[in-house]
Amino acid sequence: MVLEALTRSKQVERQKDGSRGSLRSWACGREFRVDSLSASQNQLLEHDGPVPADFVGHDEFQKDEEIPVVDMALFDGDTDAVKRNVLQMVAACEEWGYFYLINHGVELQLMHKVEQQAYDFFSMSTVEKSKHSSHYSLLEKVKRWSEWVTIKPAEGKLDEYDNQLSPPDNNHEFSTTVKEYDAVMKKLAMRIVKLLVGGLGMKSWRFDDFLEGVDATLRWNYQPPCPRPENAMGISPHTDPYIITIQHDSGIGGLQVHRKGKWLGIPPRADALIVNVGDVFEILTNGKFKSPSHRTVVNKVEGRLSVAHCLAPAEYVTLIPPPEILKHGPNHYKARTYLEYFNTRKRLDSCNSLEFMKLPTSV
Ligand SMILES: O=C(O)CCC(=O)C(=O)O
Ligand SMILES: [Fe+2]
Description:
Layout (H helix, E strand, L loop, with lengths): L3 E3 L1 H9 L15 E3 L3 H9 L22 E3 L8 H16 L2 E5 L5 H16 L2 H4 L6 E3 L8 E5 L6 H8 L7 H27 L7 H5 L5 E7 L11 E4 L5 E6 L5 E5 L2 E4 L6 E6 L1 H6 L9 E3 L7 E8 L6 E2 L3 H4 L9 E2 H11 L15
Parallel strand pairs: 3-4
Antiparallel strand pairs: 1-2, 4-12, 5-6, 6-7, 7-14, 8-13, 9-12, 9-14, 10-11, 10-13, 15-16
């Protein structure tokens, strides 16, 4: 069953009313179809329930509580101003674990290109998508309303996508785009992490060892329009198992962060990337940085695409804060390798809490 057919005319209509960011205007100059989630649509229609108390719509935002803005253009040179700006970025990671990144230097055209590849991927049939079953998931449950794919550019399987997405004589558009995008985003992510680590005075932290040979993960999420957004969830509350995540989306809202006991919508900004702290950074800073719980909600009218670039450490490194951090107090987290942390998280199905990593003294 076809859930969505965004046509050029619909697209133009939305552009006219100004509700679409520039990121999106290119995307659907052709028909875009998603044939998955059909079973859950029917289930959802049959099993609607009361609106949960913590439901916040995809377009509900609180103007007085917005995530901080970090301007990448202010980090050039070695001046006091740079130091001040780094400290502001540090404060954003401590207080929110989220910030908008403006003047990030990533070309809009590259972001469009990768989004196009993501739309192409999700436009394939469920059968085709499922060939990536270890990295492709379709949530057919009543409450969840999304599908996603994780792509590890370093795994060297990009040509499989190439062959699926276009004929065998394709020009490797998928792999070329993904590699280019990964390289640009990784450089940006590393720069942000380096600035933050410098701002925290983690001088002895062996950044290069820690991040040597790291494999970034691209995570693409797609949420088709949903008949009953109040009774569904795009991505359930979770924290990210990474150092940092940098993401952009199709500009219609839906990402929400849990803050002071409430879910707050993060308004989309066409000029900004959205950066969030992951569990690894929270552990390495001994809890100074917050790995925020976040979720996405769906909406009735439009599909929502998001493209996230996730920076993780090498599997064998031990997650332990450096002495500059530990001099302020004992470690609150168990010293585990990244792989051990990751596997335990998976085994315990503990995607929304770092409790399993906390030492008894810190509870
Ligand atoms: O779709 C979004 O905005 C967030 C995606 C996300 O949280 C994730 O992929 O981990
Ligand atoms: Fe996430």
